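User:
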Amino acid sequence: MRNIILSIIGVLLILASIFFAKQLIDNKTKPKPVVEKVVKTIYIDTVKNKTIPILIPANGSLVAKQRVELYAEVQGVFRSGKKLFKPGQHYNKGETLIRIDASEYYASVQSAKSNLYNTIAAIMPDLRLDFPNMFQKWQTYLNSFDLNKTTPQLPEMTSEKENYFITGRGIVTNYYNVKNLEQRLAKYNITAPFNGTLTEALTNEGALIRSGQKLGEYIDPSVYEMEIALSKSYASLLRVGEEVELQNIEHTENFKGEISRVNASIDATTQTITAYIEVIDERLKEGMYLEANLNAKEEQNAIEISRNLMLDGDQIFIVKDSVLDIINVKPIFYSETTVVLKDVPDGTIILAKPVVGAYSGMLVKPFSENSTTTDNQ
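Assistant: Predicted structure:
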């Protein structure tokens, strides 16, 4: 009897355990949550193809188109002139920039000129007797000879006998020696080659100047050039004489310039081509830093969008039936912030601003002032 009761109790315990376990399993099963459908609010734009000007950005510093580095070719003491040799001093063309004391050298030049005059005068009696038809032109030459002026050119020798006679007396040799001395004497005075301004002075009045010494720099402040280096891919777009828009780095002043020269060779190291922009404006100074936009060409039937909207593989997002899709495009030109595209049909709806986490097939809705965003962009 006892065994029967124990068996019944065991069976009941087993059944109770099974029931309890089933209850635990059923309680763990929860209903699946309903996934909320998220719709991104986006900014859109409708494509309208038009003519897009291709602007190539560049920058550089201004340098005077005409500039001269002043060097001494002779030695002597720097004598003061009518104007001080100081930076900022303006000179007109032909005015003396630097006057070096040449009194000693001048005396040697005068001695050589006097010797030439005496040599010609000594042959005049022989010319009267042996070459009477040549006497008058040499007499005229002597009459025009002035020791205080530049030595005049020798008369033209019209016959072989005259040439032998004059050359044999050493007159031609003496003449060219004198002209050589006169050329060197002229180097004691350095004159302004054009109207301009002294920008650098490396010596002062009274100082001893040595041959080969740099004395300063002189520029024409009316015309400047800006050297720019552009990628070789733009070489075919550059045109001499084309107008260029420039502005200072503060973007407060605008200037007009034009391409004056384009280098025919490409820098092998940087793979860039050098162009020069000529600028004329009274507000400009040498060394001023400017930014330029070169009008390279105009691209027909194209659009311009932010570079942030471009995807890998030359693709962009479009909106079709409230869903994002991807299309292939043809990039024509990249600037720092934008890209010019072709092959985007008119009327296509594209993103106006990039969307974080965007993918093809994403549900979206256009932004409006009355709409509320369900997710941050």
